[in-house]
Amino acid sequence: MTAAATIPAARVCADPTTVAATIPAARVCADATTVATTIPAESVGSQTIPGRPTPPYRRSMNSATQQDDLRPLVGRRALVTGGASGIGRAIAVAVAGAGADVTILDRDIQAKAVADKIGGFAVVADLSDLDSLAALDLDVDILVNCAGVQHVAPLESFPPDKFSLILRLMLEAPFRLIQHSLPHMYAQGWGRIINVSSAHGLRASAYKSAYVTAKHGLEGLTKVTALEGAPHGVTSNCINPAYVRTPLVEAQVADQARTHGISASEVLEKIMLERMAIKRLIEPEEVGALALFLCGDSARSVTGSSFCIDGGWTAH
Ligand SMILES: NC(=O)c1ccc[n+]([C@@H]2O[C@H](COP(=O)([O-])OP(=O)(O)OC[C@H]3O[C@@H](n4cnc5c(N)ncnc54)[C@H](O)[C@@H]3O)[C@@H](O)[C@H]2O)c1
Q1: In this predicted model, what pLDDT tens digit does every residue of 64-103 receive, in sequence order?
Q2: Whose C-alpha lies nearest to ligand 1, atom 37?
Q3: Most buried residue, 23, 111, 177, 247, by CB count within 10 Å?
């Protein structure tokens, strides 16, 4: 499948003329005037796309105003995968609140609603279609790899296609996005890569072989990116939450309740929060705040690290 066919609403730079016909609502690079005329009036995000100027980059920081200090990411462009929901959405909100120009990449059309809310842009695409990712405009300053799914089954019956999908989505897609976003970051001598890993990036749980494997791999990728990126002003870190109150976890609570024949509150108490010293689900906004810290200048020496926000889960 070509990129054009699989990315219905894409932020496209590579060759806009060839994709125009198949991209109904695209975030198109400034010079893609030929595409603009073929795009229906619908725009993704709160501003009209075609004439939208490139945001002012931090190169002009000498003229920073007090306003910029309050919104330290003004002039930065961020891409947040999985930003239509849960943790990704909270990170997108936090980063946009600090002034960044945020694009949400998600397979869920809900990405557009979130983008509208934060004055950002949406790209509706399936990250597991790896070859399509090269068509995206990845000239971003901040890349947050957050999209993910879970599948729970014993190893002997774990569906191989699910295993492959999870690795593609949660390890190979981050690799591709990092690979394609580094040249821009290197060129400007600044960049932030934030990979949303998990407590399961550091510890294992039974029946989550694909998820645990992908997250452990993401930890390694993060560290290699930190080593290679450091001379170019690029930091790379993981965020490692335990259970966060998101649709992904709410679905797991319902599944476990059904499987064990117990109530949702018992699932929380006896299964999910059992290893957490702080006995409550983490709120997505708490993760958003941590991501925001990692984007800031105070975190410029922080790289190759994994930040547990897990209520003590990994303290065991
Ligand atoms: N919720 C938790 O307790 C928790 C804990 C640790 C780590 N995490 C990690 O945080 C990340 C976000 O999880 P969440 O809890 O916010 O889940 P969520 O289900 O609320 O959000 C996941 C998002 O990823 C998107 N997505 C899934 N497959 C995709 C694909 N093929 N292409 C594009 N987008 C796709 C979904 O549409 C969704 O918007 C995941 O990587 C997850 O592993 C979550």
Answers
A1: 555 567 899 999 999 999 999 999 999 999 999 999 999 9
A2: 108
A3: 111
Nearest residue (CA) to ligand 1, atom 43 = 148
Whether 243 is catalytic is no
Best probe residue, ligand 1, of 126, 203, 211, 248 (max atoms within 8 Å of C-beta):
248
Q: Which residues line ligand 1 (CB under 6 A)?
A: 82, 84-88, 106-108, 126-128, 146-149, 169-170, 196, 198, 241, 243-244, 246-249
For residue range 8-64, list pLDDT tens digits in order. Answer: 333 333 222 222 222 233 332 322 222 222 222 223 333 323 333 344 434 444 555
Nearest to 150 by CA among 54, 246, 30, 83: 246
3-state DSSP assignment of residue 143: strand
Domain membership of residue 48 (yes or no) is: no
Cβ within 8 Å of residue 140, ≥6 positions away? 77, 78, 79, 103, 181, 184, 185
Q: Is the pTM of this model over 0.70?
A: yes
The CATH number of the domain where 150 resides is what?
A: 3.40.50.720
In a domain, 299, yes or no: yes
Atom of ligand 1 nearest to the CA of 110: 39
